[in-house]
Amino acid sequence: MRHNAFERKLAELVETEVKSLGFTFWGLSMASSGKKRVIRIFIDGPEGVNIDDCAKVSRQVDIVLEAEDIIPGAFTLEVSSPGLERRFFTLDQLGDYVNRTLDVHLAEPIDGRRHFKGKLVAVTDTGLEIECDGEPHRLDWDDVREATLVHEF
């Protein structure tokens, strides 16, 4: 999964603050809403996280981002848990989800296919193997645009 230098720098800064508060930094995404950027931070903890945990992290990260002044213009900061249908930001995060269903979108199609939904069979040093409709597919993590867990009720 590719990230630009700005996103990497921002993620490193946020991760340091999240860890200092005793939580696990799950990931970060950015979007635009009009002229304002929306920065979404996902955190987790051994017992999960609640609204108070998210507020605590939001206050601390907001202070640091304002002090560092690395985000040009106005921004909105959102902090939440990764949720049941969590997005995966690193290949390492997939290890605990072998035999679970994933929804994977690639940046560029492979053999004319960009979307894969199926059971995560294995995680390697460079990618993952997913079984879709009985067929195994090996995907390089660098080709993945987005991978999310599919919660099954």
TrEMBL record:
It comes from the Bacteria. GO terms for cellular component: cytosol. Keywords: Cytoplasm, Ribosome biogenesis. InterPro entries: Ribosome_maturation_RimP (IPR003728), RimP_C (IPR028998), RimP_C_sf (IPR036847), RimP_N (IPR028989), RimP_N_sf (IPR035956). The keyword Cytoplasm applies. Its main location: cytoplasm. Residues 14-85 form the Ribosome maturation factor RimP N-terminal domain. Residues 90-153 form the Ribosome maturation factor RimP C-terminal domain. One of its GO terms (biological process) is ribosomal small subunit assembly. It is found in: Cytoplasm. Belongs to the RimP family. Required for maturation of 30S ribosomal subunits. This is Ribosome maturation factor RimP.
